[in-house]
Design goal:
heterodimer; A: 129 residues; mainly alpha; 78% helix; B: mainly alpha; binds protoporphyrin IX containing FE
């Protein structure tokens, strides 16, 4: 007889890792939202203060973080749609693995498309004209 | 011969709060796909992304009730969805009851502050500041 799994640990394969990634991205985005409401609230303090803080978002390192944030939100959104498809679409559970690959493929293609518009400015700044 | 222990949740609450919470995560998620991905597309991808964002840019957008409504809905849905998500995460990992209690108090306090501050800023934005 197989050993009993400890507690409620989830031992799936793609299903487990897509869940871990969903949780990690959800928590990260939630913390970002906290910071983002605070920075946007500066529009109420003074135009100058707001512009000074937003200027730090235009630097190469923060631009890379921004790309990471987009990656996290996009994964969470697409995987969230996959969760809903499994919950509400009668064929969802049967195709859950294919849905995972669809999510990853779509995520990759959209991120590849976003790379140029989001990172071009930093690329030019770091590697010269 | 029980192999897997029974779930650890206490069969205390007889309300359907957890069911509504489950449905809310899915309905808000669906709306957030449009609101948040639209927001990212407009703010970070099109027309130069953050490089063109400044106070005047915000003033221009918030001159329109459409974008104020968009941002208000986005604020409330994302904050409530995220708070409810974090409540689940805390329930999963906090072992001691008192740890769980205080983490949730911290969570709810921060959510309250973010919602009040964000809502006030959207409603009281003053375009004549500049
Ligand atoms: C963009 C559209 C979004 C979709 C489609 C979406 C979808 C979902 C769904 C369906 C769940 C529930 C998972 C479950 O019950 O097993 C969930 C959980 C969660 N979401 Fe979202 N979400 C979105 C945006 C966001 C945003 C903006 C945040 C942060 C503010 C966020 C934070 C979370 C967190 C923290 C959880 C809990 C994760 C867990 O329990 O493992 N989500 N999301």
């Amino acid at each position: 007889m197989a050993k009993a799994p400890a507690g409620t640990l989830y031992r799936g394969r793609q299903g487990m890792w897509s869940w871990v990634a969903h949780r990690v991205t959800g928590v990260l985005v939630f913390f970002f939202l906290f910071a983002h409401v605070l920075d946007t609230a500066l529009v109420r303090v003074s135009p100058d203060t707001y512009d000074k803080v937003i200027a730090t978002y235009k630097t190469p390192i923060v631009n890379l973080l921004e790309f990471g944030l987009i990656a996290a939100v996009l994964y969470h959104a697409l995987n969230g749609l996959r969760i809903m498809a499994i919950d509400f679409w009668e064929k969802g559970p049967r195709y859950q693995r294919q849905l995972t690959y669809a999510v990853l493929t779509l995520w990759f293609l959209l991120m590849a498309g976003a790379a140029q518009p989001v990172l071009a400015h930093t690329f030019r700044q770091v590697f010269g004209s | 011969m029980t192999v897997i222990e029974a779930p650890r949740s206490r069969a205390r609450s007889r309300t359907s709060f957890e069911m509504y919470s489950w449905i809310f995560m899915r309905m808000s998620g669906l709306l957030l796909v449009v609101l948040v991905l639209g927001h990212l597309l407009i703010m970070n991808v099109l027309d130069g992304g953050v490089q063109r964002v400044n106070w005047g840019f915000v003033a221009g957008r918030w001159a329109s009730p459409f974008w104020r409504t968009w941002d208000l809905m986005q604020l409330w849905l994302a904050e409530l969805h995220g708070t409810n998500g974090l409540r689940t995460v805390i329930n999963d990992y906090a072992v001691r009851d008192s740890t769980r209690f205080w983490l949730k108090m911290l969570l709810y306090t921060s959510a309250f502050l973010v919602l009040v501050l964000g809502t006030l800023v959207i409603f009281t934005f003053d375009p004549s500041m500049k």
